[in-house]
User: Fold this.
Amino acid sequence: MKEIRGGKNGAGQRHAVLVTQWNDFIVNRLLDGAQGAFEDHGVAAEDVQVIRIPGAYEIGAAAKKLAASGRYDAVVCLGCVIRGATAHFDYVAGTAARLIAQAAYDTGVPVIFGVITTENIEQAIERAGTKAGNKGYEAAATAIEMVNLYQHLS
Ligand code: INI
Assistant:
């Protein structure tokens, strides 16, 4: 059997990182994690463009524009949606997840879902560099691997 795998070397790759301003005390920790992953895997700091965006609801459309621009090999989406008392959470989180997937599907560029969706603030903290790892690190490492994988697939 033969196997294809993306690999973790990000040297020469260009990444866009979309970062929400909502829940920035959590999301900035995700961005720290993403930065750590880029450093660990050889992506140069000048090849990473951070873009601040209002909320997770806006991420999908902006991600599609960035992915279609030809300027980036991948787009990493970082955000945090915390459930409140109303159905707002479902609309915001659902739209973010759906449109991020669609941006990747429509453009053929890896668009990575680094948006944490939690029941409460404690769960968000756990996923932003404490008990449950750092989802920003995981998202950036996934982006690097997907760029390498797509080079093998096309
Ligand atoms: N946006 C988030 O990124 N996280 C949230 O938890 C959140 N809550 O709870 O409402 C949130 N709302 C704003 C939304 O993403 C849009 O910016 C807003 O609805 C304007 O379109």
